[in-house]
Design goal:
By secondary structure, the protein is mostly helical. 62% of the residues lie in helices and 0% in strands. Helix 4 packs across helix 7 (103-116). The chain is globular and about 50 Å long.
Amino acid sequence: MLHKHLLNRLCKARVLLRQADADSLSVPEVARSVGLSTFHFIRLYKSVFGETPNQCQIRARIDKAKDWLLTTDISVTRICMDTGCSSTGSFTTQFKQQVGLSPRAFRYRYRSQRKVRPTLPDSLIPGCFSLMPGKMK
């Protein structure tokens, strides 16, 4: 069982990892900021949250990109750079793996649906919202 203090540090790390922008901390920097070695941090983080810190960062970047693709006219290249991804190619590959569509195809498909449907499809609502009372069906 994890000590309460250690769990608090892992939760702080999760907040840092979800900051999807060009100034995001690397996994080793996050580990140092919560006082853990990188290897120990990755192992503990995965055991507590069910994903690696890197997977958390990628998911946060994709979530932010999905929001921007639906609500702005910012270019995919700019979204890629502003969410902290190093190249448009790797961003597009990660986006397609997570979402099933390229960023451009996602924008085209769901923006056209937004004209008909004013809310996001259930499949695009982040799972963490299911933990909020009254937010899910």
